[in-house]
UniProtKB/TrEMBL annotation:
It comes from the Bacteria. Residues 1-20, 102-127 are annotated as: Disordered. This is VWA domain-containing protein. It comes from Streptomyces similanensis.
């Protein structure tokens, strides 16, 4: 009986082999698990893009003038940088035409931070979304050029209605020389040489059209007053007019970061 008890306590050959195989499997699996963990940590998700952004694009004849304001060139030069700088999460569009608010030129909002999974390459996904937004911007410009005219005030009203509100401050890129010229209001025919006269002209514009709903938004003009490059005093009066209209009346903020 004593001999049999000792034999029972002794591990079998089959048991020893199973233990060795299990140890080897564990030794192989652990490095793989570590590698997967490292890969997961490398695919860290980017910070969400939440800024609502808008693009106003000038389809008037002055926006295609040779040697002057070139809306398409300005658009291509500024849009992608603007989207990156302002961390835009969405982009809405508004055309400048002879009647901007009622224009049939309409591009859908572009989501610049599309839904993604844990392993999504967000940098590539976002870059593709920005390129799609740039393509839609060119389509909007092509359509606006068919209408002609230059109702800048109406376009500001339209983009104010389009961009989402109630969250981060919306950022608006306005690619235009701001030469307001529609069937009812032609800025070049007005005297804006003094602050008092500018105020009177703004009064008449607001009385006829109301205020665009852009209160609190940041407006980034591109090309503002380029038609007056050879006449600095007129350029100053023109820029002052729009700053006083947008900031003083519409209560938005003008930022010249992309004006060049």
């Amino acid at each position: 009986m004593h001999h049999s008890a000792r034999a029972a306590r002794r591990p079998t050959t089959t048991g020893r082999r199973s233990s060795v195989r299990a140890a080897r499997r564990l030794a192989a699996v652990v490095p793989l698990m570590c590698a997967l963990a490292a890969l997961t940590s490398c695919s860290k998700q980017e910070e969400a893009l939440t800024t609502p952004c808008g693009l106003v694009i000038d389809g008037s004849g002055s926006g295609a003038a040779k040697g002057g304001f070139d809306a398409e060139a300005k658009l291509k030069d500024s849009l992608i940088g603007f989207l990156d700088d302002q961390k835009c999460g969405t982009l809405d569009y508004a055309p400048i035409t002879r009647s901007s608010r009622s224009s049939t030129c309409r591009e859908d909002q572009v989501d610049l931070d599309p839904p993604h999974g844990a392993t999504t390459d967000q940098k590539t996904q976002r870059a593709n979304a920005r390129q799609a937004a740039a393509g839609a911007a060119l389509d909007e410009l092509a359509c606006a050029r068919k209408d002609g005219g230059s109702d800048v005030w109406g376009a500001l009203a339209r983009i104010g209605e389009a961009v989402p509100s109630g969250g981060p401050v919306p950022k608006l890129l306005v690619v235009s020389d701001f030469d307001q010229a529609d069937p009812e209001f032609v800025l070049s025919r007005k005297d804006i040489s003094t602050k008092a006269r500018r105020a009177g002209v703004i009064d008449s514009l607001v009385k006829a059209r109301g205020l665009p709903g852009i209160k609190g938004m940041d407006v980034f003009p591109v090309g503002l007053g380029m038609q007056f490059r050879a006449n600095p005093s007129k350029a100053d009066d023109f820029e002052a007019f729009w700053t006083e209209a947008i900031e003083g009346r519409a209560e938005a903020h003008v930022d010249n970061e992309y004006k060049r």
